[in-house]
Amino acid sequence: MSEASALIRIRDLSKSYRRGGQEIPVLLDIQLDVPAGDFIALMGPSGSGKSTLLNLIAGIDQPSSGRIEIGGIDIATLSEASLANWRAAHVGFIFQFYNLLPVLTAFENVELPLLLTDLSAKQRRAHTLAALEMVRLSDRMDHYPNELSGGQQQRVAIARALVSDPTLIVADEPTGDLDRVTGAEILDLLQQLNRDLGKTIVMVTHDPKAAARASRMVHLEKGVLVSEDQMNAQA
Ligand SMILES: Nc1ncnc2c1ncn2[C@@H]1O[C@H](COP(=O)(O)OP(=O)(O)OP(=O)(O)O)[C@@H](O)[C@H]1O
Q1: Is the pLDDT reported for residue 2 higher than 50?
Q2: First-to-final CA distance of the chain
Q3: How many CB atoms are closer than 10 A to CB 1?
Q4: How far is the CA of 168 from the centre of ligand 1 (A)?
Q5: What residue stretches are annotated with the ABC transporter domain (predicted)?
Q6: Strand pairing of 65-70 and 6-19?
Q7: Quick one: which atom of ligand 1 is closest to the CA of 52?
Q8: Distance between CA atoms of 43 and 23, rounded to whole angstroms?
Q9: Pocket test for ligand 1, best of 14, 22, 50 (most atoms within 8 A of CB)
Q10: Alpha carbon of 53 to those of 5, 30, 85, 160, 194: distances in Å?
Q11: CB distance 10 to 49 below 8 Å
Q12: Which runs of E-coded beta strand occur in 4-134?
């Protein structure tokens, strides 16, 4: 893969947190290229820095040093306001516990990211219905989250992640709260978004079965990135 074709290009990325006057290193000198249209699974033991790396890629946290270029923009250099605009346009988020707003219906939850855009109400409705159709939940659009199963709530969350047609989808343990069968359905859907819509997906998971659905696995060990090839070479 040529470097120029990478959608995500991470160089010399380090992140540490400061706690009680102490510097706690969490990510150390990460280098990573993710081509457009890739589906990568980010694995590693608890506390190895997976969510931290995902949050940096999604522009919801700032690195201590290094570059994170996404589509040619170094997001580490953006101001908070520019970063918020960048996120709204380019990133869809899927979380372990869905993070739906309980007072909004499925339709309203999915429509929410579009309220930040200049689309008309009619256009917003068309995009929202299309996203709900994609996750096969059109018949539940007037339901509130507590009237939906866990799998259905995660499908609403996927529709919300998709509705603004982002380049990149980040998913943090998207099947972590679901049973095996429902989790497999969610993974089917993520694979469909990747294959049919060409969405680039970065997914954090503990589950080797979930990771096997990705086109590539990368492992973090104590804040250091170890690629699948390196893992094989060490074995
Ligand atoms: N805001 C924060 N302030 C201080 N330390 C933090 C903060 N966020 C994360 N950490 C620390 O960074 C390390 C990595 O956390 P992270 O959540 O990225 O790990 P993870 O690999 O996603 O773990 P898990 O699989 O358990 O979710 C942990 O030691 C954690 O305590």
Answers
A1: no
A2: 25
A3: 9
A4: 22
A5: 8-235
A6: antiparallel
A7: 18
A8: 24
A9: 50
A10: 21, 9, 20, 22, 21
A11: no
A12: 6-19, 22-35, 39-43, 65-70, 73-74, 91-94
According to the model, what pLDDT value does residue 234 have?
52
Measured distance CA(187)–CA(174) in Å, rounded: 8
Q: Does the beta carbon of 44 sit less than 6 angstroms from any atom of ligand 1?
A: yes
Q: Give ∠ CA 214-136-60 in degrees, rounded to 5.
A: 50
Give the Cα separation of 126 and 120 in Å (integer).
Answer: 10
Residue nearest to atom 18 of ligand 1 (CA): 49
Q: Are 156 and 98 in contact (CB under 8 A)?
A: yes
Q: Which of 13, 30, 43, 52 to mutate to test the pocket of ligand 1 (most atoms within 8 A of CB)?
A: 52
Q: What is the pLDDT of residues 161-180, one digit of tens each?
A: 999 999 999 999 999 999 99
39: left (phi over 0), alpha (psi -120 to 50) or beta: beta
pLDDT in tens, 70-86: 999 999 899 989 999 89
What are the residues facing 227 on neighbouring strands? 218
> Regarding the domain delimited by 37-55+85-234, which CATH topology (the fold level of the hierarchy) does it fall under?
Rossmann fold (3.40.50)
CA distance 228 to 234: 10
